[in-house]
């Protein structure tokens, strides 16, 4: 349980790297996965989850109002479930679904924060020293929100899987393994249109 807690805390911190702070690409799946794998003692699984996350979401670009699924949330939930003994071929798909849900939740929160941001901008214009407190408050809010999201998902799903895993037929395990190993091919197939030869 301590390992899961540390994974969720670290994942929430890495999520800040997406847009809120740092922006040193720690939020990329291929980097976040192995980093979180260090906490579980299984860097190779972390690397695999990170690469698969990159390939799964490779054709979703943050253009216009589109917010792509969070690679960090996917890796965090996946590795937190693996730390609880859940096979990676189940954990990854829970992580991927969590990443999609988190992006919807983040869009909802961003829309609701517009009025608050406008009020903070007015305060900063009147008193520039207010900027530091506002930025720190935003970072802490996002960090706590992300932590609570991945923690609740990881613990709840982990408990459900621990109870039903032994009752799942072998066919479901085989199908899930096959689907998991198909993820990189799906991602690479999404890149094919980019390399087509232009005929006109």
Task: Give an overview in words.
The structure is a single chain. This protein is mainly alpha-helical and 200 residues long. It has one domain (2-112, 147-195). The protein is 74% helix and 0% strand. The chain has helices at 2-15, 29-40, 43-56, 71-83, 88-112, 114-126, 130-164, 170-191. Helix 1 packs across helix 7 and helix 5 (88-112) crosses helix 8 (170-191). The longest helix is centred in the C-terminal third of the chain and has 35 residues, at 130-164. It starts with a helix and ends in a 9-residue tail after the last helix. The mean pLDDT is 83.
Overall pLDDT: 83
User: How many strands?
Assistant: 0
Low-confidence stretches: none
Helical proportion, percent range: over 70%
- Separation of termini? 58 Å
What is the global morphology?
globular
Question: In total, how many domains does the architecture comprise?
Answer: 1
What fraction of the residues are assigned to beta strands by DSSP? under 5%
Briefly note the structural class of the backbone.
mainly alpha
Radius of gyration from the alpha-carbon trace, in angstroms = 19 Å
Q: In DSSP terms, counting alpha (H) and pi (I) runs of 4 or more, how many helices?
A: 8
